[in-house]
Each structure stands twice: as structure tokens, then as C-alpha cells.
Amino acid sequence: MKSLLKIVLLLAAFNCTNVTAESTVEKEFKSVASSLKGKIFMLYNKALKADPNISGKTIFEIKINDQGKVESCKPVKSQYKNASLETGICDAFKSKSFASLSVLPYSAMHEISLYSTN
């Protein structure tokens, strides 16, 4: 059974070390983060098989070190109530390089909304 899913990634970046570069670095962050949509979709689809009621928003705090590697990723507010899904999403972020960001180190609050349409 295939579920129709709607994944909405809403991003908000905070705590830039250089406020004048905030809009540029935010765009750069969004560009790298958007490449994770397929992986997040796959993780959500897997989680839906175990619990078809998973949906909602989660805000992740992501800290990127001066070499562009994700130093930490943790859900700070979650409606999923699914640790495996949250861990999988953080692991996906940790697998990406953010070395192309113009401001490093960098911290972001990243909101991911996942809703099933079945």
C-alpha cells in the first residue's frame, strides 16, 4: 500500500556569527538541507508502516562546526513522538557536509513538517 505523503520543509536560521551574512548563509543552509528531502521521505515512509498516525512538526537544533560538519543535531520540540524517526533525520543531517557555508561555525533551528495524506 502506497501512501501519498506531503513533506514540507520549513527552515529558519538563527544565531549567525555574522548578522550581515545571515540571509546568504541561510540560503546556503537551505540549499544543502533541501538535498535531504528524499532521505527524510524514505525515513517517514518507513516510520508510517510501523505507526500510520505519525504526523506533525519537529524543530531540530543543528550545530555545524568550523569545518562544515554537523557537530550536534537534536529535536527541541517534537510532535512525532518517534525517536527512531528523529534519530534518522539527525543522522541524515550528520551525513551531509555544510563546508560550503560562508559563515562557520553556524547554528540553525530547522523545522520539518511531515503529514500523511492517506
Itemize the secondary structure elements and their pairings.
Layout: E1 5-12, H1 22-34, H2 37-50, E2 56-64, E3 70-78, H3 83-94, E4 106-116
Antiparallel strand pairs: 1-4, 2-3, 2-4
Helix pairs in contact: 2-3
Description:
The structure is a single chain. Helices cover 33% and strands 31% of the residues. It is of the alpha+beta class. It has one domain (19-116): 2-Layer Sandwich (TolA/TonB C-terminal domain). Strands 1-4-2-3 form a 4-stranded antiparallel beta sheet. α2 runs antiparallel to α3 (83-94). The protein is elongated. 23% of the residues are buried. Mean pLDDT is 82; it is low at 1-21.
Total number of distinct structural domains:
1
Distance between the termini: 10 Å
Helix content: 25-40%
> Based on CA inertia axes, which overall geometry fits?
elongated
CATH names the topology as TolA/TonB C-terminal domain
- Uncertain residue segments: 1-21
CATH domain class name? Alpha Beta
In short:
By secondary structure, the chain is an alpha+beta fold. It has helices spanning 22-34, 37-50, 83-94, and strands at residues 5-12, 56-64, 70-78, 106-116.
